[in-house]
Amino acid sequence: MTASAPAKDIVRDYDLYLGCVAPNRYPQIEAATQLVFQKLGITLHDMKGASCCPAPGVFRGFDIPTWLAIAARNITIAEQDKRDAVIMCNGCYGTLLEANHIMKTEPERRKATNDVLAKVNREFRGTVRMRHIIEVLYNDVGVPAVADLCVNPLRGIKAAVHYGCHLLKPSETRPWGKDERPTFFDELVEATGAESVDYKDKYMCCGAGGGVRTAVKEVSLDFTREKLVNIKEAGADIIVDCCPFCHLQFDLGQVEVKQIFQQEFTIPVIYYTQLLGLAMGLSPYELGLLPAADKPAGTSPFISTKPFMDKVLSNMK
């Protein structure tokens, strides 16, 4: 996929859909995203009253009408605000993008869902888009413009890029098309000056999705363990993702993999806007890359980001 030139008339105001994991487990991801978009001249507005998306692999697997009604209600908040929504989480993106598509293209489901929404004085009208922040950065801002803003290029950093399942599938509703080995996320990572390293089974699931992490954690973590082995063998300094749930699975998951499989990994896990913000010259403390010395036990990040920051600072000398 070839990087597009930045559009001159990009949208400057979006609703920001937070989801559950970022505000509850990784507030640094939300902070980094807000800071980076401010740097880009794009304002992200809170979605007042938004709920869980709800999760595509759990809620949809049990009751599609309920999943669709809850998702459509969230979409109506953006419609009320008269702004498209940007999303930081792949699972939330999967739910809201697909629910928006269903409601716009399937009249019978739209009517049934609107009958439910009417009970809370809401109606889906189909007036907004649901977009992942990576889509906005790649398709609207453009890789060249992102690279131009990177005043502290992260040369010498080897990054293992993790796309995540719901960012790419089902391809019929995604803006990336049906490319089985896309490069758009790698291009955005390399715009920061870091090197995206190839590794075995790069597009494999992190292991968290579909309710597997909750239902059968050992199976879930075996996926994670395999990816970590492949990433370590590729010589990556960091894992870069664009989904807080994948982020949790790789970050806390390394602690859990050690407990269950007695295999130790210490690969820092970096969300994309943290990486981009650092390259843009933003404070690593504000980006959550250097946690406070008195960080409470049992809070993120679970794998220290200090080796990554030490290498960044060393390469700048």
Structure in words:
This protein is α/β, with parallel strands linked by helices and 317 residues long. The protein has two domains: 13-133, Up-down Bundle (Glutathione S-transferase Yfyf (Class Pi), Chain A, domain 2); 143-316, Rossmann fold (3-Layer(aba) Sandwich). It has helices spanning 21-25, 27-39, 59-62, 64-81, 90-105, 107-117, 133-141, 143-148, 165-168, 184-191, 212-215, 217-233, 244-261, 272-279, 306-316, and strands at 13-17, 43-46, 85-87, 130-132, 158-161, 195-196, 238-241, 269-271. Strands 2-1-3-4 form a four-stranded parallel beta sheet, sandwiched between helices. It has a four-stranded parallel beta sheet with strand order 6-5-7-8, with helices on both faces. The longest helix has 18 residues, at 64-81. The protein starts with 12 loop residues before the first strand and ends with a helix.
What's the number of helices?
15
Largest sheet: 4 strands, parallel
CATH architecture of the largest domain: 3-Layer(aba) Sandwich
- Domains (count): 2
Record keyword descriptors for this entry.
alpha/beta, Glutathione S-transferase Yfyf (Class Pi), Chain A, domain 2, Rossmann fold, 2 domains, four-stranded parallel beta sheet, 15 helices, disordered N terminus
